[in-house]
């Protein structure tokens, strides 16, 4: 029997990508809404309650409204918005973090898909704090480089317009007030004592991103002094993410092959995440490289669906 899926917000960037990924699957029956009714509350209510699983690809307020429309207790929700990522009763959709996270997804009926910047940051910070290598009181700062598709249809239109602002020709730092919407989950999921200093940058390419976490090594409590600090951290991440097919920890040779540069678009179109460890004995930079539309959005949503359905975790995804 096919699983009935409704995508509430199928016209947005994430919704469209999820819809595209279902075109090659024979285990899914998509419930569709006509364009003229996609904002009609009663039609959305009907389709949500007729589904087995509903994806929410909406602004936060609309996502909360959609959850309030659920009347059928059997309906499961996978929300790609920011609305429920730190809410009680919602599984956080990053199964590689721990067995507890994976189990919560598999048994959950409310799953919140991580934000793209948060995905990179948490993939790096969570293991260190959970393993008592980094204190939750450390004054963390992070940087992120992303393609413009992360800004949704409006930003895509601005970048792809024939006549556009010259400022779009260069990378642009944003969230200058330190009020980025992903900060709340970046703090709560990792267990940090306070929100990190976070400087995201958007650049003139479509998709892909790199999130970097620089650290002073004197703050790290990690065993194995017979090897250098970058090597120890690399080995730590390899062990932590051992057996996780969506996460690759890059070795020294693979890192060196980049000739000292880490491109933001190298993982565009791929649904996994790569971790790099660079630096020296005093200072290291931990970096996560992935696609903001893949592991950072629709790819992660489909991964959560696959876990929920008990099928191959990478089904319909590009690894």
List the secondary-structure elements in sequence, H or E.
EHEHEHEEHEHEHEHEEHEHEEH
**Radius of gyration in whole Å, from Cα?**
20 Å
| Number of strand segments | 13
Globular, elongated, flat, extended or rod-shaped: what is the shape?
A: globular
* Structural class label: alpha/beta
Strand order of the largest sheet: 8-9-7-10-13-12-11
**Percentage beta strand:** 15-25%
Return residue spans where pLDDT drops below 50 for at least 5 consecutive residues: none
CA(first)-CA(last) distance? 27 Å
- Total count of helical runs of at least 4 residues: 10
Mean pLDDT: 95
How much helix is in the residues?
25-40%
Q: Can you summarize the main beta sheet?
A: 7 strands, mixed
Folded structure, characterized:
The strands form 2 sheets. Strands 8-9-7-10-13-12-11 form a 7-stranded mixed β-sheet. It has a 6-stranded parallel β-sheet with strand order 2-1-3-4-6-5, with helices on both faces. With 319 residues, it is an alpha/beta fold. It is 32% helix and 20% strand. The chain has helices spanning 13-22, 41-50, 60-68, 99-107, 116-130, 152-160, 183-190, 229-240, 252-256, 294-309, and strands at 3-8, 28-31, 53-56, 76-79, 91-92, 110-112, 141-147, 172-173, 197-203, 209-216, 247-249, 273-279, 283-290. Helix 1 packs across helix 10 (294-309), helix 4 crosses helix 10 (294-309) and helix 5 (116-130) packs parallel to helix 7. The chain is globular and about 60 Å long. Helix 3 (60-68) links the parallel strand 3 and strand 4 (76-79). The mean pLDDT is 95.
């Amino acid at each position: 029997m096919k699983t009935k899926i409704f995508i509430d917000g199928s016209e947005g960037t994430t919704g469209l990508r999820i819809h595209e990924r279902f075109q090659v699957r024979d285990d899914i029956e998509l419930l569709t809404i006509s364009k003229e009714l996609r904002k009609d509350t009663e039609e959305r209510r009907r389709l949500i309650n007729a589904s087995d699983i509903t994806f929410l690809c909406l602004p936060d307020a609309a996502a909360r409204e959609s959850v309030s429309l659920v009347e059928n207790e059997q309906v499961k929700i996978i929300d790609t918005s920011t609305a429920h990522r730190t809410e009680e009763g919602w599984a956080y959709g990053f199964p590689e973090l721990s067995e507890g996270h994976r189990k919560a997804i598999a048994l959950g009926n409310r799953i919140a898909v991580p934000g793209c910047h948060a995905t990179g940051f948490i993939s790096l910070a969570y293991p260190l704090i959970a393993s008592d290598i980094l204190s939750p009181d450390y004054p963390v700062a992070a940087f992120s480089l992303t393609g413009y598709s992360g800004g949704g249809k409006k930003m895509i239109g601005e970048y792809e317009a024939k006549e556009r602002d010259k400022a779009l020709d260069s990378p642009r730092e944003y969230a200058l007030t330190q009020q980025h919407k992903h900060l709340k989950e970046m703090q709560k999921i990792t267990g940090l004592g306070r929100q990190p200093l976070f400087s995201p940058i958007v650049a003139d390419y479509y998709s892909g991103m790199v999130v970097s976490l620089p650290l002073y090594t004197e703050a790290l409590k990690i065993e194995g002094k017979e090897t250098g600090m970058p090597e120890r951290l690399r080995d730590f991440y390899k062990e932590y993410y051992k057996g996780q097919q969506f996460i690759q920890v890059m070795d020294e040779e693979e890192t060196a092959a980049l000739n000292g540069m880490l491109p933001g678009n190298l993982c565009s179109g791929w649904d996994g995440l790569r971790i790099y460890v660079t630096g020296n004995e005093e200072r290291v930079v931990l970096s996560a490289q992935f696609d903001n539309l893949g592991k950072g959005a629709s790819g992660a949503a489909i991964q959560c669906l696959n876990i929920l359905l008990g099928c191959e975790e990478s089904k319909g995804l590009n690894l």
